[in-house]
Amino acid sequence: MPKVRVGDIEMYYDTRGEGFPLVLIMGFMGNADCWDPVYFLPRLSERFRVITFDNRGAGRTDVSDKEEYSIKMMADDTAGLMEALGIKKAHVLGISMGGMIAQELAINHPHRVEKLVLASTFCGGPKAVPIPGEAAQMVTEILGLLSQKGWDREAAGRLIPFIFSEEFMKENPGLVEVAIDLILVAPTPPEGIVRQVEAILNFDACDRLPQIRAPTLILAGKKDRYIPPENAEVMAMRIPNAKLVYFENSAHELQEDIEKVTETVLEFLLSP
Asked: Would you say 113 and 78 are in contact if contact means Cβ atoms under 8 Å apart?
């Protein structure tokens, strides 16, 4: 497993493909294996050198001794990983919490970001549309299960209704099982979950979004139950010249429209 020292942690990462670098930042409780392996990753790696990794506290990356995490801290980790891999500048795509990290990266390390893609995310703080209470309840339930018996299919399965639409789950039971398998490849330990939750709750980039100068594409699924899709417009109004694309059939992971999502991303990244 490739790892590299970044600050106070050892970070797990993977690369595939060749060309200009594209850094993918995974979301809350996810790991580098959670990106769609059937269409999304293969298509992107045809045109780019794609870098995936486990965030601080997730998967195979160290939890670290720091008691408190912040989204900015994880953005600094991403910049440090790029430095360690000899990547001066890259396209950056972040989903969910990864989209929050991508915002902080573009604000605090603008020289690192060529183009920016923000998927299924929000800018935090009082100006954002808040994450619904049932999502917080889901996290509490997972932590309760982990305290009893650790990660298993039941615990991972609690995430599924918040990342896929009901229609997708009914029509694609096999893909749902694959998603659970990918979560369990390198699940996030309880202490990492708690610290990531604190980082999300303290995140607020709304008033700083006008500082982003990288060309930006914002993606959101109209059926997202995790981060309300109205947040995409909140961000688009604040990021200069941002392009906003909604996907009518998609929930949080955008899996329902993954081919359209992938081609939209490629068109944006490959355009002059």
From this structure: no
Give the containing element (helix H, strand E) for 49: strand 49-53
Per-residue exposure over 26-36, b if at least 16 CB sit within 10 Å of its own CB, e if not? bbbbbbbbbbb
Domains of the chain: 3-270 (3.40.50.1820)
Nearest to 29 by CA among 164, 158, 176: 158
Query: Which candidate, 88, 26, 85, 86, places its Cα nearest to that of 60?
Result: 26
38-84 per-position pLDDT tens digit: 999 999 999 999 999 999 999 999 998 777 999 999 999 999 999 99
Token pair for residue 201? 């709750």
Residues 6+ apart with CB under 8 A from 45: 16, 17
Four-residue CA torsion sign, 200, 189, 224, 109? positive
Q: Which pair of tokens denotes residue 167?
A: 């229609």
Q: Identity (one letter) of the amino acid at 116?
A: L
pLDDT tens for 13-31 read 999 999 999 999 999 999 9
- The β-bridge partners of 23 are 51, 92
Q: Is the pLDDT of residue 1 over 80?
A: no
Closest CA to 125 of 73, 71, 77: 71
- Structure tokens given for 64: 């670290």
Region for 37 from its dihedrals, namely left if φ exceeds 0, alpha if ψ lies in -120 to 50, beta otherwise = alpha
Contacts of 148 (CB under 8 A, 6+ apart): none
Q: Which of 9, 53, 51, 6 is nearest to 186 (CA)?
A: 53
| pTM across the whole model | 0.97
Residue keyed to tokens 């995430």: 159
DSSP 13: E
Q: In the Cβ-directed half-sphere of 105, how many Cα atoms lie within 13 Å?
A: 33
- How far apart are alpha carbons 12 and 201 in whole angstroms? 25
